[in-house]
Write a structure and sequence with these properties.
Length: about 400
């Protein structure tokens, strides 16, 4: 955003020690809707890009639009695409969008519904659960236990309703599209690594690393995703009076019978955004503003560098369960000296140094002509960092690196 010629002044709420160099940080939490709206009014802000899902689901974009402010991000009704898994599954059913077979159920129905599914089976809390509300049950006992846990409040209010889903097999990929409510354009692909450990083992996380583009999503498959998944979603929401303005992030399973939707997010992914932005070459603020003002049809089509970008997440020891806070981080300038970029996530400034302040802490990012080259450069940068209480996966990009070696 700061690199956009059309952006004269950029504020970030609340920001972190990384974005500080590019935007004026204001100490307002992302879920403090009243505080954000007061700030927008006081400073005459004319364009807001809403990053995370919680304020979208809570209606921040609606409230800003009511004030006449251009907003990139869906209103609460359309943000249900991320906020309610059951809502998205029902929309897929109405619009004939390929996705896993499913049943939405309440506590008294779930065990009977489960009997109709084969194993493995997927049990999901309906609401927002910070990426943790999905259980892949390998046995019937595990599925029963997952259902009981969700209705017992393991994910708080998110688990008041549960979705039981058919288990799909295939390779996963992420696809992005920008929508102004009616027009929709493709905005690149990526592949995330959700499990905490090398070789895709251990618990799910928010994402431990990603690369872009994801060649497994060929031009032909991308065209299918636009025609069968993205366009019907945007058209259905528009027809129902809840147009989608913002970025649609489709989590896809590339099955033997074509791409199927796993889930939608109503925002750029983290860390998918980092690799998309390393490759995006245009005026981002102008493009997102066009999407926010019904002007996408006339906007300059997005241009991406042909190079690959790859990012490695440095997380605090103990992540995802109990990340250790306060560990010092040195060497960020050294890591960037070779041309890479270190994006901050959960960092804070403490006594003149940068310390870990969250689960995922840094995103060490590099580009290359191949995924193999981008990977080598990203890990060379990782090795320049001195972050004793942190760790990372050492195999980000492994699927594509193996294909490139063939
Ligand atoms: P979600 O939060 O919905 O993206 O789910 C988290 C992860 O669970 C996905 O990235 C998939 O790896 C897996 N998953 C979710 N739903 C299914 C499904 N129906 N079949 C197979 N894997 C799934
Ligand atoms: N990396 C996946 C997400 O942002 O949901």
């Amino acid at each position: 955003m700061a690199q956009s010629p059309s952006c004269a002044k950029l504020y970030a709420a609340p920001g972190n020690p990384g974005i500080e160099a590019h935007a004026e940080c204001v100490a307002i939490a992302a879920d403090d809707l009243d505080g954000l709206i007061a700030f927008v009014k006081a400073h005459g802000i004319d364009f807001v890009v809403v990053g995370p899902e919680a304020p979208l689901v809570a209606g921040l974009a609606d409230r800003l639009r009511d004030l006449g402010v251009a907003v990139f991000g869906p209103g609460a009704a359309a943000a249900r695409l991320e906020g309610s898994k059951g809502f998205t599954k029902d929309l897929c059913a109405r619009a004939n969008i390929p996705t896993a077979a499913y049943v939405r159920c309440s506590a008294d129905e779930a065990h009977a519904v489960l009997e109709g599914f084969s194993i493995p089976v997927v049990i999901k809390a309906d609401g927002l659960a910070a990426g943790k509300g999905v259980i892949i049950a390998e046995t019937r006992e595990d599925a029963e236990a997952a259902i009981d846990d969700m209705f017992d409040g393991a994910f708080g209010g998110a688990g008041a309703e549960v979705v039981i889903e058919e288990f799909m097999t295939g390779e996963e990929a992420s696809f992005f599209a920008l929508s102004d409510g009616t027009e929709v354009i493709a905005f690149g692909s990526a592949q995330d690594h959700k499990r905490v450990g090398d070789g895709d083992v251990g618990p799910n996380t928010g994402g431990m690393g990603a690369y872009s583009p994801a060649p497994v999503l060929t031009a032909d498959l991308e065209a299918q995703v636009m025609d069968r998944i993205i366009r019907p979603t945007v058209a259905t929401l528009a027809a129902e009076g809840t147009p989608y303005i913002g970025v649609l992030f489709a989590g896809l399973m590339l099955t033997d019978t074509g791409p199927k939707l796993i889930e939608y997010n109503a925002r750029f992914g983290d860390p998918e955004c980092q690799v998309l932005m390393m490759r995006y070459a245009g005026d981002l603020a102008a493009l997102l503003h066009a999407a926010s003002t019904g002007a996408l049809a006339d906007a300059t089509p997005p241009a991406f560098a042909s190079d690959y970008a790859l990012t490695v997440v440095m997380a605090a020891n103990g992540y995802p369960a109990t990340p250790e806070k306060g560990g010092a981080i040195h060497g960020i300038a050294d890591a960037e000296a070779g041309g890479g970029r270190v994006f901050h996530a959960g960092t804070a400034r403490e006594g003149g140094q940068i310390v870990a302040a969250g689960g995922r802490v840094l995103n060490v990012t590099a580009t290359g002509r191949t995924v193999t080259e981008a990977q080598a450069r990203a890990y060379a940068a990782v090795d320049k960092l001195d972050f004793k209480t942190g760790f990372c996966r050492r195999d980000i990009g492994w699927r594509e690196v193996a294909r490139e070696a063939d």
